[in-house]
Design a protein that fits this description.
Blueprint: E1 5-10, E2 19-24, E3 29-30, E4 39-41, E5 46-53, E6 61-63, E7 72-74, E8 76-77, E9 80-81, E10 86-87, E11 96-99, E12 117-118, E13 124-127, E14 138-151, E15 154-163, H1 175-181, H2 185-195, E16 206-207, H3 216-235, H4 258-266, E17 284-285
Parallel strand pairs: 10-17, 12-15, 13-15
Antiparallel strand pairs: 1-2, 2-3, 4-5, 5-11, 5-14, 6-7, 8-9, 11-13, 14-15, 14-16
């Protein structure tokens, strides 16, 4: 049976209370981190992707790995909601951005390729199709390659993928197809990740492999290895600081009842009116490229 998923907003958008929870087709609340399968179609190497940030938007929305049922919420720094800066010529995120469920970049595991440990999150995906997705949308994607970003000493893989329902999806089967059919996009992607924290006073990010993209087969092997890490995480008696509560992983000691999952959602405020987005989110920053 093919599962479909719905997103349910709680709290007030653009405030600290805002959450996006997930339900499966049976109406049971689930974790997008643990309960949505990594594969949409294993035989075809088609993966599920949870969209956290729609293209062109700035709010740094992410799966809340430390909260029960792992809803999507906006990242907070020093008590304030976090928005990514616009570094010219980019406006917000330049792809639909999100994560592959049932993956985990283990901070206790040193990556043999990068020499750095994982960033303690599900693996990130940049989806390059035409449609601007919505927060909490679960789409099926074809993996095309990956970039190895080093973020403050941690390995942070960025998987490049395309929505299988994109009208041009059949033309994209490798990272070279992206280079050929969307010229400039991969270079812009490296530039975006290199400089997006500079307006916050941080140094430029670094990359393994001299900032070169690795191919599809390499990317799929990385995704599979992070799935192995996740299986170990969700199987053990302690998830550490991460919340492994789930409703579908039968072998996990963190499995909970649908009633317990309902109670988690019921404890949050219902969806209310949105606050305005601060006007400085539209500011554009300009830097000379080094």
């Amino acid at each position: 049976m093919k599962m479909s998923y719905t997103a349910e907003e709680r709290g007030n958008p653009n405030t600290l209370s805002y959450r996006v929870f997930f339900k499966n087709s049976e109406g049971v609340y689930i974790s997008p981190f643990h309960d949505i399968p990594m594969y949409a179609d294993e035989a075809q190497n088609i993966f599920n992707m949870v969209v956290e940030v729609p293209r062109w938007t700035n709010a740094k929305m992410e799966i809340a790995t430390k909260d029960a049922l792992n809803p999507i919420k906006q990242d907070v720094k020093k008590g304030k909601l976090r928005y990514v800066a616009n570094v010219f010529p980019h406006k917000g995120y330049i792809w639909n951005y999100g994560a592959i469920p049932q993956t985990w970049e283990d901070p206790g595991h040193k990556d043999t390729d990068t020499g750095c440990c994982g960033d303690n999150d599900p693996i990130d995906v940049c989806e390059i199709g035409n449609k601007v997705c919505s927060i909490g949308e679960v789409i099926k994607v074809k993996v095309l390659g990956t970039l190895a970003m080093i973020d403050e000493g941690e390995t942070d893989w960025k998987v490049i993928a395309i929505n299988v329902e994109d009208p041009e999806a059949n033309a994209f089967n490798s990272i070279d197809d992206v280079r050929r059919l969307k010229p400039g996009y991969l270079e812009a992607t490296v530039d975006w990740f290199r400089r997006y924290k500079v307006p916050d006073g941080k140094p430029e990010n670094q990359f393994a492999f001299n900032g070169e993209f690795k191919d599809k087969d390499f990317a799929i092997s990385i995704v599979k290895s992070t799935n192995d890490n996740w299986k170990a995480l969700v199987s053990k008696k302690s998830g550490g600081e991460l919340n492994c509560t789930n409703t579908c992983v039968s072998y996990s000691p963190f499995l909970c009842t649908k009633e317990a999952a309902q109670a988690v959602v019921d404890a949050t405020p219902p969806c209310g009116n949105a606050d305005p987005v601060p006007s400085d989110v539209d500011k554009m920053y300009y830097y000379e490229k080094k």
